[in-house]
Amino acid sequence: MPDAFPRAVGVQDGRTPVIKYLLKRAATYVVMIFLTTSAGYFLAVSTMSPSLIEQEKIPRPTPEQVARSLASKNLDPAMNPWDRYVQWLTGVVTRWDWGLGPDGGSVNSAFGDRVWVSTRLFLAAIILTLVIGVALGVFTAARQYKASDRVITSYSYLTYIVPAPIAYFLVQLAAININDASGQTIFYVTGISTPGMDPGWPTFVDLVAHYVVPTFAITLVGWGAYQIAQRQYLLDNVNADFVRTARAKGLTRNQAIRKHALRVSFIPVAQTIAFAVPAIFVGGFFAESIFAWPGIGFWSIDAIGKQDVNAATATLAYGSVIFAVGAVLADLATALVDPRVKVS
Amino acid sequence: MTTVERLHVPGTRAPGDAVLSVRDLNVRFNSENGVVHAVRGVDFDLMPGKTLGIVGESGSGKSVTSMAIMGLLPDAAEIDGSVMLKGQELLGLSDSQMCKYRGSELAMIFQDPLSSLTPVFTIGDQIVEALTVHNPKMSSKAKAARAVELLRLVGIPSPEARLKSFPHEFSGGMRQRVMIAIAIANDPRVLIADEPTTALDVTIQAQVLEVMHKAQEETGAALIMITHDLGVVAGMADDIMVMYAGKPVETGTVDQLYYSPRMPYTMGLLGAVPRVDKSAQTSLVPIEGMPPNLLTAPTGCSFAPRCPLAGPECLDGEPALLTVADDGGAGHRAACVKLAQLADVDVHEVFKAPPVPVSRFAGVPREERGTVLRLNDVKKHFPLMKGSLFKKRIGTVKAVDGISFDVREGECFSIVGESGCGKTTTLLEIMEFNKDQPGEVEIGGLNSKSAVSGSQKQAMRKELQMVFQDPTGALDPRFTVYEVLAEPLQNQGMPKEQIRKRIMELMRLVGLQPDHVNRFPNQFSGGQRQRIGIARALAVNPKLVVLDEPVSALDVSVQAGVINLLDKLRAELGLSYLMVAHDLSVVRHISNRVAVMYLGKIVEIGDVDSVFDSPRHPYTRALLSAIPVPDPEAERTRERIILSGDLPTPLDAPQGCNFASRCPIFAALPEEKRSTCLDLEPPLESGGTDHRFACFFPDRELDADMLVQHETADAGGL
Amino acid sequence: MSVVNEVTAEMQAERLEHDGVVISKGRIIFRRFLRNKTAVAGLTLFLFLVVFSVLGQFLTPWTKNDIDPAYIGDAPSAEHFFGTTQAGVDLYILMVEGLRTSIVIGLVVGLGSMLFAAVYGCVMALYGGKVDKVMLFILEALIMMPSLLVVAVVTSGGSVGKASLPSWLTLTIVLLVFNWMGPARLIRSISMSLIERDFVKAARYMGVPTRDIVRKHLIPNIGSLLVLEITRGVTLAILLEVSYSFIGVGIKPPDMSLGILIGQASQQVSSFPWMFWFPLLAMFALTGSMAMMNDGLRDAFDPSSASVGRTRKRKARTAQEKTA
């Protein structure tokens, strides 16, 4: 008979300890990140031409000036791409130097704070998306075919056909309208902080207040998929043989479902974290563009517009790392909820 | 009959003594196609400490009955009648009220041990949960101690350590033991077992049945044993109830039912089961047709459409259960209007069992027949890898380890053994017919080492066809029967007009209506699908048909028809069969020769009667003794060999005898002789004409701990 | 007994059709699809949008290069059905063109990536071993690449002079490259389980060549999944185009698309609301029509007994009605 449960990741022979398994996975991902980043570098070098932007400067520089200026930043378009790649890679590997932009700004320093601004936003959104999605999934599964289930599940299906940035924009629009209607700033719809705040507590409160709208927007369109998945997995398990066994022991139907079916239904949901993280990452990029947040997303799209090869490559590497972290987290979460994957 | 009247139906015992009384139980479900009346008026009384066997085929309502008693049916089910547990009415209680009884007074063991335990909780937690629900004040120390006690009772080695194990670390047999431990945790008065051993191998089934015996002894519980296997209940039950189409059609003591059945359905069922302990002299009794679908109320006897004795009187209202007057009277009741005339009829005559077909090869001695298949030292070893990034070979699984045999024209050669013994892998190795495999396969004179060209392989494929175990999976759901049957013919390049003619021929040959060729497989029953599979295998006129468990997915009554068909085809078409099966009764019925496999090796091989009547290898002896036979007297007095432990994995098998770890002879051997078994591999030695086995000490005595005999009829250990 | 006769007669008629098994199967699928009202509505809506995007330009005298000085930033009127932009260009004609771009991108990416995924997935499943391992590695590496950034990089280069591909074509290619991995992995696992099924084994043991097994057993059995993945892929491509263009990294003017229209209008949504809402509604109509078709397609391709039962029941009912 087929296994009643999807085969958990990492169950090779039942003996591989998870930590070792995760390390091996991580090693594979390092190789993949290296490859995607290198591919990204070549792609950027071959499609971008910073000299065109440079020439739009006022006063207009001579082509020689432009070439000299770019060459000094290791951005010489005349140089062959492979040599540029070797030079760039040497910088990254030996000095952790991700290069300079056409304007001479260092990618490392530009990344600096922005990484934390973005990562904080992603983290808050991922946690909220999962928690709300799973909670609503359980809630609706318990009320299958009742009005609340129909409304929530229909909403979740609706999120499948709405482009994320438009949803964020509509949220922003609604917040602006509420602000206008009330005549005061209830919601902060752009930026991450109000300039000139007192340090300490007021700054923190201000920061949190600025997080509200973007986090809400990302979560609002993100949870749908998890609600549907969790609802389905739980319903799949409600009539499982082991729930019947629990009832035969003397547990009521609800007790048996709460204790046995629920826990088992978390296993496939944990595996989908691998997809949640990239989705939120992309969502975060859109959100930063729309809410004008000084994060990686906003900055990199701007930098790519300015034909900044090194910024583009660095962001690509950052994205690959986030995706890999998502995959590893999914493995870890699965190991936590499924004893068939052993933690040592 | 109204409920009140029914309550006055005189039974063997006064209902007052009964621990469980069921009266006029009816269950209806709403389905897409209408209301299904799944259980239609079940009555029985269960006496303390006694065992009631409920026997029926799939869809007979036996499992629904048990779920109704437990209160585990979905809310949508409509249940009426009465279920009294020690005088307390259970029907109509709410889920939470029922919980007082479930798991304490009333416990249940389910069919599939693999899915019946929650995968994410430890065995210990799941047993303790059963204790906690009914004994909230019990200390956790006491609960842990009780859990250990229970695991020891059901025969789990080192129970303290095993408490922390998860279900996936247990084999199927072990998990079923855990299920039994959970069921008896609170000393129930009534224990319901729904096909508890159907999913298990024969030797494991024998172990689990022993554990159930023991559990019943310990708790003194009354047992309801639900099964389709007339052999399993023959030795265990005191009373039997046979169900058909949601209704009990015959009830009585086990001896009455088996030795003088009165309802034609019961008679047919008993005649449909092949016997492992007797050589086949007659064909099996086939029961034609299919059970009714229970969407519409039957106007006459529900078995009438399939009954060879049915007359006009059978169509006039459903017959009630009537007492069989001439059979000692007490308690034997059957639902048949003709029961008085059925005292001493021959079931084979009644059901028109076909005559035993005689093959044209029957008179030819085996040595003079041509060889259609020959295997020489065939091996299949799988590397066992470990690690995910850099794989390391940590060992070898010897799934098939040096198998040699031959199959002659017109004979049926069977390979038997438990799951994991390598019998199916052997079949697949033959079907692959690849020159890179170790050992030689020779089919119709073509050798796997030399026949490498495409046309030679194509010629080989014409000689050899296969019938699969699962008739549903073997047919593409998107093909009509016509397309299914045309595929091998098209592949052999037959012109369209001939294909059409051949398909009509095939349909008639396997007993299907030729005008059904445009239907899809899902419009047929399981037995019919298997007939389609057989027709496909025969399409290109092969000499040898490979049968992989051809009837194990079918109900008993359907199985008989398919076995008879296989028998007939072999005789009429002069076919040879190579069959793999775990059901030794079926093997005995249709085979001429048999090989017993254990961990990739043949341990005994020879003429089927010789091997089954005087087995020499201890594994063959254990296997044969583990198979329940539908004969209560024989079951009770038989001496059984209960092997200890599970089948070991064939990973780096020891250099000596593979079976030593479970062998009852080895266990009783004096220390100095044991080294022979451990160091040397026993060769296949001749034990008479066409009978060879691989054991150094076949005639030494068996270990007494592994022998079980259930005394006399009445004591029965109950 | 006339009911029985009627039913047998119908069966006989069906048997006469037998020679064209494939055709009659297609007809069964089509009939089942038509039975689902929502799906039919979805299909109708989709076809209407396609026709509109192709022929809509002939219903108005305006082109996207015309500027109507009399109606600058004007609300919908008889002259300009959907109003004009703040530059005085007719929104109707822009939407016809935008919709066309979206539909083309959706269909090309949806069909193309799914076709590629089917081939890639089947090859992985059929060959297994090293081939499977290498192909899986490539697949996973591509999944690791944030496609949003690749789109941004590639389309940013093309926009600044230089003879290069139009931005909608660049976007289509990038979407094609980055949208086949998920379905390919799904098709791989389903094909793998199909190959293990007994009916495929049976065909192999009969000596049926691999290409026939793929054509007759594998493809039909993953067919329903493929169809669903195609509608999903089309929807996803349309959504991605809108998303990317909305934040300014996908399609760039002078190419027109729904995403660009929505993106440009979002800057002045309070002053020119029609410029925002009309393209948005068009996009919802497009993705919505796909979602509406999904259920019907799944039912139509499902060989499970339920739908067959329904068919038979319906036949029996019509037979009854005839006799009544």
TrEMBL record, chain B:
Keywords: ATP-binding, Cell membrane, Membrane, Nucleotide-binding, Transport. It comes from the Bacteria. The keyword ATP-binding applies. The keyword Cell membrane applies. Residues 22-270, 373-624 form the ABC transporter domain. It is a peripheral membrane protein. One of its GO terms (molecular function) is ATP binding. Belongs to the ABC transporter superfamily. This is ABC transporter ATP-binding protein. It comes from Arthrobacter horti.
Automatic annotation (TrEMBL), chain C:
The chain crosses the membrane at residues 39-59, 103-127, 134-155, 167-187, 274-293. It is found in: Cell inner membrane; Cell membrane. The keyword Cytoplasm does not apply. It holds the Pfam family BPD_transp_1. The keyword Cell membrane applies. InterPro entries: BP-dependent_transpt_permease, MetI-like, MetI-like_sf, OppC_N. Keywords: Cell inner membrane, Cell membrane, Membrane, Peptide transport, Protein transport, Transmembrane, Transmembrane helix, Transport. Residues 99-294 form the ABC transmembrane type-1 domain. SUPFAM superfamilies: MetI-like. It is a multi-pass membrane protein. Residues 304-324 are annotated as: Disordered. PANTHER family: OLIGOPEPTIDE TRANSPORT SYSTEM PERMEASE PROTEIN APPC (PTHR43386), OLIGOPEPTIDE TRANSPORT SYSTEM PERMEASE PROTEIN OPPC (PTHR43386:SF2). Belongs to the binding-protein-dependent transport system permease family. OppBC subfamily. This is Oligopeptide transport system permease protein OppC. The lineage of its organism: Bacteria, Bacillati, Actinomycetota, Actinomycetes, Micrococcales.
